[in-house]
């Protein structure tokens, strides 16, 4: 797959033609070639859009860390994704992702606790079973679209944590993708604005009704946690609870599936790596970190400069939008040896797939546990995957996603028995 292999010489890229805003680039082009050229030739670059809007593109690792870490200089309150560029973010100051400390810290603290590794390991058996159930279609010899099916997988981990009924998981998973990849006609209906508005409306209505129905009843799930959280000496408003339910839902649904699909693709391209993990299961944790770096499912995060600031040798002005391209930082040759090699034993691996600083992904512990289970089950049950159709990528400048990837699997000797057991035994 050209997109993940070594990009062409940096001189082949015409920087005047570069358009990182264009969702088509991520569906059919190769952002890695462009990111590499920018890192080496113009690491802090202004992109002007035809409609008058514009933003700084940050492509180097050290600059990305600075932008994501320094919340005094680079605020999240103006919106953290490019789709809000140039418009007021209605979630500003209400949703964790669009807040700065100290409010952000107060809101996040109780969630940190519920989502800590310590709290989550006791769910591991349940999560392993969810992974095996997800893999059941592999028993069938016909091609299985692993990427499409994978979009529902996070709900089986986060659904119970959030406290949303299983009957709603499939619809929530699909609407989440429409909200974060509205440019892709397969998920968003109508134009980008219309698709976002529809998806947001549906998700906000959904959580609003759910929170309303709970009344004053406090539960030990994430929604209950938000309903009991205080910031600045007062409880969260109904809207604040709803915004943060939305954020937790999307945080999980639009990222993790693409790590799974991209990793299986890497294993198809390099079967020896699959054998290596199968032979040395102790590699699973580092394989997960490499899978995160390799896939970098959240392409970018945006901030706004609070004051004039110099980055590299470029002067950024107060109010300017600044976009840290996470996918680029994770291939920075100054930080990662052989960045275009999928190295499951890579150490150290200080990737930015979960971000950096105060907004570092609050769901990272559950994502790591879930991905560890996925990798160990995949290599434990499957000897080889084969592509059974074209790989299609998502049309989105935010989600670095695979939306279709039909595969067939050659299972290991005991796999059928292990998987069938999941259909027989009740939870
Ligand atoms: C592979 C899976 C995941 C990846 C790659 C990922 C990536 C990220 C990144 C890069 C950020 C930082 C955003 C910023 O700096 O503005 C973030 C924040 C966040 N993530 Fe994740 N995420 C993943 C899984 C999850 C899961 C499972 C959940 C929910 C349980 C979640 C919920 C959130 C939330 C609520 C935030 C905002 C945190 C804050 O603003 O303090 N994420 N995620």
Features:
427 residues; alpha+beta; 5-stranded mixed β-sheet; 14 strands; 45% helix; globular
Q: Any overview of this molecule?
A:
- With 427 residues, the chain is α+β, with helices and mostly antiparallel strands.
- It has a single domain, classed as Cytochrome p450 (Orthogonal Bundle), CATH 1.10.630.10.
- The protein has 18 helices and 14 strands.
- It has a five-stranded mixed β-sheet, sandwiched between helices. It has a three-stranded antiparallel β-sheet with strand order 4-14-11.
- A hairpin with a 2-residue loop joins strand 5 and strand 6.
- Helix 8 runs antiparallel to helix 12 and helix 11 packs antiparallel against helix 12.
- Protoporphyrin IX containing FE (HEM) binds next to helix 12, helix 13 and helix 17.
- One of its GO terms (biological process) is cholesterol catabolic process.
- One of its GO terms (molecular function) is steroid hydroxylase activity.
- Belongs to the cytochrome P450 family.
- This is Cytochrome P450.
- Keywords: Heme, Iron, Metal-binding, Monooxygenase, Oxidoreductase.
């Amino acid at each position: 797959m050209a997109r993940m292999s070594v990009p062409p010489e940096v001189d082949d890229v015409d920087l005047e033609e570069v358009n990182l805003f264009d969702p088509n680039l991520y569906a059919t082009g190769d952002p890695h070639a462009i990111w590499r050229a920018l890192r080496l030739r113009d690491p802090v670059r202004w992109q002007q859009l035809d409609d008058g809007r514009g933003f700084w593109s940050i492509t180097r690792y050290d600059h990305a860390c600075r932008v994501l870490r320094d919340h005094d200089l680079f605020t999240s309150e103006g919106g953290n994704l490019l789709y809000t560029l140039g418009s007021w973010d209605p979630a500003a100051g209400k949703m964790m992702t669009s807040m700065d400390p100290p409010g952000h810290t107060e809101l996040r603290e109780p969630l940190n606790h519920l989502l800590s590794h310590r709290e989550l390991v006791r769910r591991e058996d349940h999560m392993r079973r969810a992974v095996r159930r997800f893999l059941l279609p592999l028993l069938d010899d016909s091609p299985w679209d692993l990427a499409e099916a994978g979009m529902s997988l996070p709900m089986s981990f986060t659904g119970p944590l959030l406290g949303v009924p299983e009957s709603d998981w499939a619809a929530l998973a699909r609407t989440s993708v429409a909200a974060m990849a509205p440019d892709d006609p397969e998920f968003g209906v109508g134009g980008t604005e219309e698709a976002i508005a529809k998806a947001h409306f549906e998700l906000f209505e959904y959580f609003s009704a759910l929170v309303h129905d709970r009344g004053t009843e406090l539960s030990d799930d994430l929604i209950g946690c938000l309903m009991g959280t205080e910031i600045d000496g007062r409880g969260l408003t109904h809207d604040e609870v709803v915004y943060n339910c939305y954020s937790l839902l999307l945080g999980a649904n639009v990222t993790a599936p693409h790590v799974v699909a991209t990793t299986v693709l890497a294993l198809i391209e390099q079967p020896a790596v699959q054998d290596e993990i199968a032979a040395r299961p102790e590699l699973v944790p580092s394989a997960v970190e490499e899978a995160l770096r390799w896939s970098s499912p959240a392409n970018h995060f945006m901030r706004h400069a609070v004051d004039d600031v110099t980055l590299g040798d470029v002067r950024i002005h107060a109010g300017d939008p600044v976009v840290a391209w996470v996918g680029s930082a994770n291939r920075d040759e100054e930080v990662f040896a052989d960045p275009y090699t999928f190295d499951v034993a890579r150490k150290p691996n200080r990737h930015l797939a979960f971000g950096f600083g105060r907004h570092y992904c609050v769901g990272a512990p559950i994502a790591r546990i879930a991905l560890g289970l996925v990798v160990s089950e995949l290599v434990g049950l499957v000897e080889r995957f084969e592509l059974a159709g074209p790989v299609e990528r998502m049309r989105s400048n935010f989600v670095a996603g695979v939306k279709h990837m039909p595969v067939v699997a050659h299972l290991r000797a005991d796999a059928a028995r292990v998987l069938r057991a999941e259909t027989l035994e009740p939870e």
